[in-house]
Every structure is written in structure tokens, then in C-alpha cells.
Structure prediction request, 361 residues.
Amino acid sequence: MKTEIRRNSGRLGISGLILFLLLPLLAGCFDGGRDEKAAVATAKTAFTGSGERTLVVGAYSVAKDAMAEILPRFREEWHDKTGENITFQESYEASGTQARSIAGGFEADVTLLALEGDIDKLVKAGLVSGDWKTQPYGGMVTRSIVVLGTREGNPKDIRGFEDLTRPEVKVLYPNPKTSGGAQWDINAIYGAGLKRSEEQGRKDPEAAKAFLEKVHKNVESLDKSGRASMAAFEYGVGDVIVTYENELLARIAKGVRYDIVIPEHTILIENPAAVVRTYAEEHGTLDLAEAFVDYLRSPEAQSIFAKHGFRPVEESVYEKNKGRFPQPDGLFDIEYLGGWDHVRKTLYSKRGIWYQVLAGI
Prediction:
């Protein structure tokens, strides 16, 4: 899917004529490694005369509420530092959908996605630099954990993932084909199955697959995104939702009455952000995009993320907020499952465990 972005345009007038005459000279000022499109984009930015640029942000749906506060704060900070006015164009989709959209031609300057595999798709497409994980915190800007949300008072007495296998319990989580959040949910359930098997003597992938199958039999629907799954739950579908902790904290803060159940064994979620370098260079916004991604890890932005239920990556902000974020005894990370490369091959490949569960084989 290609999303067309319309930027400021108008008649060139005198500044346009100057730009036309100076382009050959400007192009000669750049070394051979700088691509011609980037040189032209820089020249266009210099001669618009508007004193304003647009930053295009393509993010996964769960980040939307936090971004509604972060973007205006960054705009103010940038103006205070540089005197430049900036505007934003925003797109929020399920993480996998957003990644495919950007790879397919949606010219985002910056992207925030649910999992590193979606950023890697953009690396393979030649849009994001391959060294994006060398940024602070491994390129991550937020953390969370997978939890269970129940109706107020927890009428089904849900205590952990094991209760999701009970026949009378109806479960919601989104579709991992489109939603990065869903992959975290599936990873958490599968990992909990592995932990259960270890308690019986050994780490057994077949036992973990059987556990995932039992949970999936009780799933009511597979929605497009974590946000869509939450909307269905609020509409009255299902008894329990498997989701990000921050999603439930954000809804509770807005007055929606849910109980949060933190399973003993669950997974640490890490969410990345990256500059979409190819598009940012073409648009003449590379400096702005890089500054924005840096800002996402600042204490100010991290405090906003924490307000919206995300676990901060910035240590000082986490220390101030850690009382809000209980640490389950059996918390594990993606490395417990062998790392993302292994997970993609074993769970989400065409013949992987997840698709075997869907096919009932």
C-alpha cells in the first residue's frame, strides 16, 4: 500500500528561479558519496523561504496516544533551539502493516514500530541504516510486558496463561501476520509453555506448542492490530485480552474499568524507533529526523511514555516510575526463545509453529 504525502508547494517565483540557476553549483559542493536527490532536497529546503519543514512519522497504532503529547513538545523544543517552525504528518497502523507500507512507498522520515523485525524489513528494503541497533538502548525507545486484561472484578478468576486454556474462557489477541503486538503476545504464551515444561524436567518445544494450541482454541477473533483488539474487547467481545501492559494502563487512566493480571511467566517487550534515512535525505529532513529519534529517549519524552503506561528505557525515568511497574518473577526476554532470528524461523515462517497451530497440525 502506497500512501501519498503532500508537502508544501506553490509557485516558485523569484526564489525558484534562483534555485534553478544555483542547482548545478550546489550539486558541485557535495562530495561524490552524497546522492544527487539529497543535494537537490537540501537546496529546495534552503530556498523555500517558508521557514517551515514537515516531518513524516509512521508509527504502530499503540504509540498514538503518547505521540499526541510528544510531537508538540518536540516542536516547541526545536523552535526554541533553531527558530524553525515544523509540522508533522502522522500515520498509525498495525506494526507489520506500517512496515510494509513504508517499504512499499509511504515516505516516512521516522518510524516507531512494535518489534525489531519490522525495522529489519526496512533495512532489507534499503531504507533504514543497517547499524540502527548501535543507537542507545539498542535502538529501543520503550518497553512493556505482555499481560492479561479482564472485566472489572476478574469474574472468570484469571490468574495466568494457564487459565486461558479453560473451555469457558473466551480470549482476544490480534493477528500476528499484521500486528507486531500479536507476535509479542504469541511469544509470551509460547514462552510460558516452555517455562511450564522446564518445571516438569526439560525445556520442551512440543509441550510449548501444545500449550499455545490450547489457548488459541479459545480465541474469539484475530484483529488487525493491538488497538483494534482492544476496541473489540471494550465493545464486549471476550472475557480476557492478551495485550501490552501499557495499553491497559492507558485505558484505565481514561476511566475504563479493567483488572490487570500479570502472569508469573511473561515476556519483556522492547519497541524500536529509527530514521528512515533514504526518505529523510530525499526530503531534506535528515537532521530533523535524527534529532527527533534522539528526543524520544530524552527524560522529557520518556516521562510522557511512562505516563501512558510504557516502561521507560532511560534509567533515571525508570527509577522514578518503577513502583508503577511490577516485575514478575518469571519475566523472560526474546533471548529465552533463541532471539528474533530463531523466533521468526521457528514460530512465524510458512511452516512454523504458529501456522501449524492455525492449521491444526
Observations:
- The first strand starts at residue 52 and ends at 60.
- The chain has a mean pLDDT of 87.
- The chain has 15 helices and ten strands.
